[in-house]
Each structure stands twice: as C-alpha cells, then as structure tokens.
Amino acid sequence: MIIAIDGPAASGKGTISKRLAKHFDLPHMDTGLLYRAVGFAMRDDLDHPNWEEKAVTTAQTLELSHYHEDDLTTAEAGIAASKVARVPEVRAALQTAQKHFAHQKGGAILDGRDIGTRICPDADVKLYITADAHARAQRRTKQLNDRGVDVTFDEILAQIEKRDADDRDNPAGAFYVAPDAHLLDTTKLSIETAFQAALELVNSVLAQKKNTP
Ligand SMILES: Nc1ncnc2c1ncn2[C@@H]1O[C@H](COP(=O)(O)OP(=O)(O)OP(=O)(O)O)[C@@H](O)[C@H]1O
Ligand SMILES: Nc1ccn([C@@H]2O[C@H](COP(=O)(O)O)[C@@H](O)[C@H]2O)c(=O)n1
C-alpha cells in the first residue's frame, strides 16, 4: 500500500505521516529532507553564477545520512531547499530515490509537495494536509523556539508566505492538489484530532476500494 501525503510548509503533514506510518507499520520518507539536504549543502554557493550545475551534482550524489536533521530543519535550509527545488535536473535526480522507496515491497508512506501528482500518481490513498498560514507560522515558531532558536512569529510568517508563493509558481514542480486527493484542513485541529481525521480518511478510502469489484 502506498500513501501519498502532500501539503504546504508546517501544515502538519510530517507529524501525520509519521503517526500513520507507525499505525500501519509502513516505512516513511519525508521527501522535503532531500531538498533541504541539497539546499543546505549549497548554502554558501547559491549566489554563484554556476550554482545550478553544482546543485545538480549535489543531488545526484546525495547521501542523506551524511546530514544532521537539526541542520536540515532550520528556516534557512527550508528557503535554500525551495530554491534548489526549482531546478528540473535536481528534481529528476531526487525522484529516482523517492520512486524506489515508494515502490518497495509492502508499500510506504511519503510526504512532500508532488507525491500524489508526480512521484506516486498510482498511490492507493492521497491526502492533502493544509492549514492557514497564521496557524502554520505559530506552529513553526513554537517548534523552533522550543529548540532554543531565537525567531519571531513575524519572521516565520513572512518566510512561510514567501516559500508558499515560490513553491506555488515553481515551474519545475507539480505542486497542486491531486484531483483524487482528500483534503484535510488542520487549522483548528489538535495534533491528535488531525491524526484521527487522517486515519479515518485513509480507512474509508481503503474500505471503499475493498468493496469496489
Ligand atoms: N494540528 C497541529 N496542531 C498544533 N501543532 C501541530 C499540528 N500539527 C503539527 N504541529 C506541529 O507543527 C510543527 C510542524 O509540523 P510538521 O513538521 O508535521 O509539518 P510539515 O508540514 O511536515 O512541515 P515541513 O513542510 O516543513 O516539513 C511541529 O512542531 C508539529 O509538532
Ligand atoms: N516533494 C517535495 C518536497 C519538498 N520540496 C521543496 O523543499 C522545500 C522544503 O520542504 P519541507 O516539506 O521540508 O518544508 C519545499 O518548500 C519545496 O520547495 C519539493 O519541491 N518537493
């Protein structure tokens, strides 16, 4: 079984994906980390004239295990990720690993931006997790402040709005809600309620498929 989960930054898709992965005993891939790793590796080179070429080589030779998650989950790595994600050859290099992970025996859960549209258009279940920018900025600010990172709500809101806009008009992406995705707005939901709502959606899609000859 393949479950594809998409949504904008800090919508809670990673939290829901991890919980669903545990529930269904499926391996999980946070595909944003791949783009973040390339962005992080390129952080001092993004102003160079030939940065795109270097980003492609970085993506083609990426070893995610060489990076620390704390370095990848910063706001700066998110902004750099969004920049390298606009290079079609970077996307192509990272797609191979994602498709391979998705189609392993027994299935998988992947979360990102183009999982239901480009990586796994054949997924058994597709969810699109969203929340308004204000709620997402509050969550991300708390997440970073709890980790001791000194950022304000206003800074994070501005970054989230910019990243939303950059991602929305990424010419190399397929960042739209797949027509067969189920939408879940978590703006007013706690983590637990959001997870239960996602689980209900997944179970209802699976039950429907089981009953369809
Ligand atoms: N429904 C919710 N209510 C409150 N906080 C939440 C909710 N869902 C997630 N969070 C918190 O918001 C933060 C961001 O969540 P998460 O990492 O799951 O988002 P994401 O969409 O995967 O983000 P990214 O796109 O940057 O990877 C985390 O600290 C998480 O605990
Ligand atoms: N499938 C994906 C996943 C992510 N991106 C880009 O990476 C940025 C960081 O992603 P997070 O999920 O960790 O926030 C994101 O803003 C996208 O630009 C992508 O292109 N495709």
Automatic annotation (TrEMBL):
Keywords: ATP-binding, Cytoplasm, Kinase, Nucleotide-binding, Transferase. Residues 3-203 form the Cytidylate kinase domain. The keyword Nucleotide-binding applies. ATP binds at residues 7-15. GO terms for biological process: pyrimidine nucleotide metabolic process. It holds the Pfam family Cytidylate_kin. It catalyses: CMP + ATP = CDP + ADP; dCMP + ATP = dCDP + ADP. The keyword ATP-binding applies. Coiled coil: none annotated. It is found in: Cytoplasm. It is an enzyme of class 2 (transferase). GO terms for cellular component: cytoplasm. GO terms for molecular function: ATP binding; CMP kinase activity; dCMP kinase activity. It comes from the Bacteria. Its EC number is 2.7.4.25. HAMAP family: Cytidyl_kinase_type1. Belongs to the cytidylate kinase family. Type 1 subfamily. This is Cytidylate kinase. It comes from Maritalea myrionectae. The gene is cmk.
